[in-house]
Amino acid sequence: MYKYFEGKRILITGGCQGIGKGTVLELWRFGAKVVALSQQADNLEALKREVPSVEIACVDLRDWPKTRQVVDSLGIFDGLVNCAGYIHNEPFLECSPEAFDATMNVNVKAILNVSQIVAKKMIENGIKGSIVNISSQVSKAAIKDHLAYAASKGAVDSMTRIMALELGPHGIRVNTINPTVIMTELGRRAWADPEKAQAFLSKIPLGRFGEVQEAVNAIVFLLSDNASMINGVQLPVDGGFLAT
Question: Which residues are CB-neighbours of 208 under 8 A, at least 6 positions away?
C-alpha cells in the first residue's frame, strides 16, 4: 500500500474503538507513526497486541492537568484527530447538570486542552499540520433527546472555526466531520430496533446508516495534503440527512 503518511506522526484521541480505532488502523496502513490515546487501558493493550508499532497512551481526558502532562510528554505531531466522545441522551426537560457537564468535559474541553498542546508544538517547530475534530449532524439539525450532545457538537463546530482562523496563518488547518449514525459496535446496539431505525433512516436520502470506514475516509482526506486548501469546514458524512 502507498505510504501516503510516511514520516508523519499523528495523535488520535479515543483511538481504541469505533471511528477512532478505524482511523488509527487506516493511518498506520498509510505509513503514519500513530499514537492512540484513551482512558480504556484494556482496549489500548488489545490494540497494541494487534498492531505493535502503534504507540498508546492512557489518560482520562476529563482530568485537565493530567491530560496536559501526558499529551505534552508524547512529543511533536503533524496531525491530530479529536475523536474521543461522550453521549448520554436525555430530553431537554430532564437533562441533568451532571450529564451536561460530563458531555462538555469530554466533547469540548478535552478538544481545547489537547489541541492547545499539539498546535503550540506545531507552531514552535514550523509544522504545517492538520487537526480534525469529530462533530455530528446533530450540531446542525435537531434530534430528540440529544440536548447535551447537540450543545457540545455545536460548540465543537464553533471552536473549529475559531481554531481555523487563528491557526491558519501558521499553516495549520482545522476542520470537522459531521457524521450521521455510524455503525460502530455501539451504533449497531443503539439502533438494533427496526422500528426506531426506520424512522431515522427515512430522513437519510441514501437510506442507510454510515459505516466506520466511510467516516475514516473523510478524516484521512481532511488530514492529507489532498485537502490543502480546506480549512474551517464542517464536512457532513450523513448520506444527505442535512440536505433534506
Answer: 201, 239
